[in-house]
Amino acid sequence: MVSTSSAEAASLRPGIKAPAQETLLTPRFYTTDFDAVAQMDLSGHEDEIESVLAELRADYNRYHFVRNAEFDQCWDSIDGETRQAFIDFLERSCTSEFSGFLLFKELSRKLKGRNPVLSEAFALLARDEARHAGFLNKAMADFGLSLDLGYLTKNRTYTFFPSEWVIYTVYLSEKIGYWRYILIYRHLEQHPEHRIYPLFKYFESWCQDENRHGDFFKVLLRSQPKLWNTLGGRLWARFFLLTVFVTHTLTVLERATFYESIGLDPDQFNKDVIRNTNETARRAFPCILNTDHPTFFLRLNTCAIANQHLAEIASTQRPAVIKLIQKLPWMAVIIWQMLCLYLIPSVNAEQSRETVR
């Protein structure tokens, strides 16, 4: 674990934290095929789109993200590994929300005049994500650091995803975000002695934003039969479920100190989030993963252990070639475990879906 002092030293200028080094586990910034999104045929789903839009327009959390007097104190009591783990959590969450803001804002801008309905929807999504990112960045400032979001915008690497991939991944990102926030909120409601910082009190309403965003992407997904009513759609659904669950497992277990600091068992929390997200995906995806398979979580944990070995190797001062050679066996472990997980027979969600909600 990186010490607090060394983490705070890694700054662009006083009080501004240098962005975390980009890895497979850091939130990524995305761009997509804007023309393909503009040309999406939403016929037959107008009522659902309008229903989701009405929810977004209502802006239920307009006055929710207002800091109260509880924040106005010194937070030096949160120190050591707990402090650094919490800063890491805030940074990752802020970067993820800001990434969503940039993508949704650009989609809204590119679709303006071409697809007014989607342009408005993405503008409303961007509004929520910007609000979340700003609130999290203010929380980081309580610990003497914040992110330069303008710097991130200009200097972060942008990854191109086809529009279909964006729909799959953002749907899952929003739904897994919902379950992460609501499970933490419920846990701390039952165990307030572990609520080390007032941010957690905001999670109940916050996660409803995540839920509404996911519902919007669910309508987009169901409006495109090729995403769920084809063999390719079923294979891609399984792939994105798996990659999101593997990434979540690696991230949670890598940052176990944070979850332990708020009284959560990281392993159990990871399982609960994945099981709930997988079940929620039944409403949108053509198939879901069999999380009850006896080897499912064992293989995910094996991936996490291999990733810890990779991180240890990366932190050494050995020559790059030597580190690559040492990494290869552990990379092979992750690839093999993911292949085995992918080949576990999936659960047909279409057969169990009575209505698309």
Automatic annotation (TrEMBL):
Its cofactor is Fe cation. Keywords: Chlorophyll biosynthesis, Iron, Metal-binding, NADP, Oxidoreductase, Photosynthesis. It comes from Parathermosynechococcus lividus PCC 6715. It holds the Pfam family Rubrerythrin. The keyword Iron applies. It comes from the Bacteria. GO terms for molecular function: iron ion binding; magnesium-protoporphyrin IX monomethyl ester (oxidative) cyclase activity. CDD domains: ACSF (cd01047). HAMAP family: AcsF. Catalyzes the formation of the isocyclic ring in chlorophyll biosynthesis. Mediates the cyclase reaction, which results in the formation of divinylprotochlorophyllide (Pchlide) characteristic of all chlorophylls from magnesium-protoporphyrin IX 13-monomethyl ester (MgPMME). Belongs to the AcsF family. Its EC number is 1.14.13.81. Residues 88-220 form the Rubrerythrin diiron-binding domain. One of its GO terms (biological process) is light-independent chlorophyll biosynthetic process. It is an enzyme of class 1 (oxidoreductase). It catalyses: Mg-protoporphyrin IX 13-monomethyl ester + 3 NADPH + 3 O2 + 2 H(+) = 3,8-divinyl protochlorophyllide a + 3 NADP(+) + 5 H2O. Pathway: Porphyrin-containing compound metabolism; chlorophyll biosynthesis (light-independent). This is Magnesium-protoporphyrin IX monomethyl ester [oxidative] cyclase. InterPro entries: AcsF, Ferritin-like_SF, Rr_diiron-bd_dom. NCBIfam families: AcsF (TIGR02029), PRK13654.1 (NF010172).
